[in-house]
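pls design
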């Protein structure tokens, strides 16, 4: 894994880990590692943001869900753009739409909302 991807991965794992007490995290991590490859791959490619927010009744597009998950993991708009291969201005537009749809004022609120609603068994 290249250094930028490793750093992003480490931030995402730390953010996810911070949402659960250590014993629950260990159990969830173990569950994720024990999944068959096909199931783990399906979960990994499904936008976490879309899943978590849909449970609350918010309707985000698949791309908005991807962006919401990356923002919640601590990525800047430039990093999200590089990760998804899109323009930074496009990310700016999506982030604004996500915040409006959810009635949120900041990226921090978005991260908090996702962290509080994310399924504990999602491997990260």
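designed seq:
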């Amino acid at each position: 894994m290249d250094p930028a991807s490793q750093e992003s991965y480490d931030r995402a794992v730390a953010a996810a880990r911070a949402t659960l007490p250590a014993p629950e995290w260990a159990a969830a991590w173990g569950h994720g590692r024990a999944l068959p490859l096909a199931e783990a791959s399906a979960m990994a490619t499904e936008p976490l943001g879309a899943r978590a927010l849909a449970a609350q009744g918010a309707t985000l597009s698949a791309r908005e869900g991807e962006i919401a998950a990356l923002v919640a993991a601590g990525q800047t708009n430039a990093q999200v753009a590089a990760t998804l291969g899109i323009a930074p201005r496009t990310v700016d537009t999506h982030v604004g739409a996500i915040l409006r749809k959810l009635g949120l004022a900041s990226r921090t609120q978005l991260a908090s909302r996702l962290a509080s609603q994310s399924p504990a068994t999602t491997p990260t």
